[in-house]
Amino acid sequence: xxxxxxxxxxxxxxxxxxxxxxxxxxxxxxxxxxxxxxxxxxxxxxxxxxxxxxxxxxxxxxxxxxxxxxxxxxxxxxxxxxxxxxxxxxxxxxxxxxxxxxxxxxxxxxxxxxxxxxxxxxxxxxxxxxxxxxxxxxxxxx
Length: 142
Prior knowledge:
- The chain is mainly α.
- 42% of the residues lie in helices and 8% in strands.
């Protein structure tokens, strides 16, 4: 499914992803902050008495058609200007930029959180095993 900009068929792609995630039993919400620019948030509900989180990432793919524009997007995404929007719109992401403060209600929740560093070298070296385990234990539990 081509969502390349232009023409930007993000709405079509978001609908496909939303349907697919719902078929997996995830609670899916779609937030649109700009016309035809949907963001999808999926929640895996479980019976464990704990809150869980995930890390967000952005990357420039090898062989990208517009690497210079991709680099500009990454620079913007990592900027204080963009990351300060998290708090403004109460998006519960922890800003990666050290000059941007965490939104107050999220900061309160995080007081009791056990935050641990991610070993990206280990994750990269063990990617296939980690993904297979996630699929087997989370998406398709027996």
